[in-house]
Design brief:
The protein has nine helices and seven strands. It is α+β, with helices and mostly antiparallel strands.
Length: 270
């Protein structure tokens, strides 16, 4: 994997992605998760003018494409295994006790502080895209002020993969059953609320996933508010990515529309 060149624009939350992947991949080896080992890492820029890593080759098909060819029971088996892995990932605690991502980011004492930084940074980055804006009647900072108590119900920073969807899963057939051989792309990991994992509220997961993962939250009112906020922030980030990285104006506007709808619903609930 090769880091983007220096002149490629990135979102603030995308700083140091390759360094983050190195950090978490090595830190998590002791948990015996299906993570490709890093065989070499070069941040010196002596060979090429970009950071890069060399990871082991893992057998398997991309689950996003292969699952379409499988029978429902085979699909259920994969989703159930993904639920078990997601539960294990989200059970890992940050021994240092802080929220957020490692350097070059700063640590946060409270989950609400990280979410506030993340949300207001995304909102500020909209200013670089002239065709996108959050309506004036939606006050993101005010929403975050009202959400602080709900967010700070999260006392323990736990591991959030950040991109745990089927495109980052490899599967292969063993004894007639498809199993997960690798979970890829650990470069967007943070320490925080496991429900910040966007697949939990942004994908239509099969029931076997939830059977293995367990109930997402014990507090329905808190759960619903966090869900709306995380969906709004996820759509806002996706909107910026569509505009900045892929120059897809129509898709960017559609994702921003989703973000605004979630912010509006959350405002009414507060």
């Amino acid at each position: 994997r090769i880091a983007p060149p220096k002149d490629k624009p990135l979102l603030a939350c995308e700083a140091g992605l390759l360094q983050r992947e190195i950090h978490f991949t090595r830190t998590l080896q002791k948990y015996h998760l299906p993570i490709p080992k890093i065989l070499g890492a070069d941040l010196s820029k002596r060979i090429i003018d970009r950071n890069y890593i060399i990871a082991e080759h893992c057998p398997g098909y991309n689950a996003f494409y292969r699952l379409k060819l499988l029978t429902p029971p085979q699909q259920d088996a994969v989703f159930g295994e993904l639920g078990r892995y997601a539960r294990r990932i989200h059970a890992i605690e940050n021994p240092a006790g802080w929220f957020g991502a490692p350097a070059p980011f700063k640590p946060f004492r409270k989950w609400s502080e990280f979410v506030r930084w993340h949300a207001l940074t995304l909102e500020e980055e909209l200013q670089g895209h002239s065709f996108m804006a959050i309506p004036h009647h939606i006050h993101v900072a005010s929403i975050l002020d009202k959400m602080a108590g709900v967010l700070d119900e999260i006392k323990t920073p736990r591991l959030v993969h950040g991109d745990l969807w089927l495109r980052n899963i490899l599967i292969t057939q063993r004894k007639g059953t498809y199993t997960i051989t690798a979970i890829l792309d650990w470069d967007r990991c943070i320490w925080g609320d496991p429900y910040f994992e966007w697949i939990l509220h942004g994908l239509d997961l099969r029931p076997t996933f939830w059977q293995e993962y367990g109930p997402p939250d014990a507090n329905p009112r808190s759960h619903e508010k966090r869900k709306l906020l995380y969906k709004a922030l996820g759509c806002l980030q996706a909107s910026l990515e569509d505009s900045l990285h892929f120059h897809k104006r129509k898709q960017a506007m559609q994702m921003l529309t989703y973000a605004i709808a979630n912010f509006t619903e959350l405002s009414k609930a507060l």
